[in-house]
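Reopening this ticket.

The earlier resolution said the output was attached, but the attachment link was broken on my side. Pasting everything inline this time so it's all in one place.
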Amino acid sequence: MRLRYVEGSVAEFHARPIPADLGEPEIWLFVPERPALVLGSAQDQSIVDATAAAAANVDVVRRRSGGGAVFVHPDRCLWLDVVLPRHDSRWVNDVRTSPLWLGKAWSRALAEVGLLAQMYSGGLEQKP
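Inline output:
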């Protein structure tokens, strides 16, 4: 896999296109320039106190995929996107099962450095 180091705004990173002609798997190591609260594609913006976010110098952005809100900080998190071309043997066209191989790899890597990790592999749940 090729590693790409990317810096910039969280909004720009989420708007970044995934190349249609990706020849080999890539890991995008992203370092955000500022803290941000990233909302899922269907999350209601009203859950955010915009005044408090602005006062704390936190951007509020929306990603194109689902899921819940995630706080991102340049000094406090590791952000990796693993991008697979469709012809890769690990590619699965099912959002529920496609990340399992990567979760298992992370679990093994953490165990090798003495950190125990439990991977959730159950179904997707939507909380009211």
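Reporter confirms the inline version is readable. The radius of gyration is 16 Å. The mean pLDDT is 89.
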